[in-house]
Amino acid sequence: VNHLLGIKYLNEDDIQLIFETADHFKEVINRSIKKVPSLRDITIANVFFENSTRTKLSFELAEKRLSADVINFSASQSSVKKGETLIDTVNNILSMKVDMVVMRHPNPGAGIFLSKNVKASIINAGDGAHEHPTQALLDSFSIREKFGDVAGKNVVIVGDILHSRVALSNIFALRLQGANIKVCGPKTLLPKHIETLGVEVETDLRKALNWCDVANMLRIQNERLDISYFPTTREYTQQFGVNKMLLDSLDKEIVIMHPGPINRGVEITSDVADSKQSIILNQVENGVAIRMAVIYLLASKIK
Ligand code: CP
Questions:
Q1: Which of 9, 11, 97, 142 is deepest in the core (most CB within 10 A)?
Q2: Structure ipTM
Q3: How many distinct helices (H) and strands (E) make up the chain?
């Protein structure tokens, strides 16, 4: 398959191959070799219909470090505003001899739809509340880097699970690798039947944190809330926010992750985000090597 549409479509061997390839690229970058000639004959379009800081810049940097040619498309400054469809937009881009499309879109399944309607390799950079596969890969890669292995680790995903593509992709990826997974958040922000995905629900944050090795703290996806959800932001922070006092009072030292962007003072306080237990910026650093690996492996199938 020439696409990365979701972790759902991968198996454990795929993930290990991506990690081993990312190990290689991370080592190359750490040797201050900032560019390899691997993809000199590949052109990639980054097509973003939704805002992004980390994912967009990380993909662009990964592509440039592989020596691919890169074009960037932002829907808000494009002819989408004049009524052009997704397929027309992408087919016009592809007619300029583009090989691969990295797409972020607010609609769940947009990447799958595109892969069935255009002739190019598609990488899903986040599709609504569905999947964010490269985020889950870089998250697991960061856990592996910290602990040596993901298998057997206790990971709690805290927050707005219902609207989070990061949560779903992480659940698929962590399960494939044999981690134990709990989700923790207000009942209104947990999907019904979440247990069918092989995770346990824990609504008591302290219990969840005392159980885990890693807490992945999610942002409330206000842009995807179409009704007024209980709790209010203040109530959410009181029940599900992590501050330094709570972190220091736990039975053991846990690792704090966050996919970004952080709403400081809501899901985590600054002294937690910036603490030595936080690997948030390591996640961002690892994102470049993971995206280099994903692009390199997909490009090897189209060359
Ligand atoms: N983690 C993540 O997807 O961040 P951006 O929305 O800034 O890309």
A1: 142
A2: 0.98
A3: 11, 9
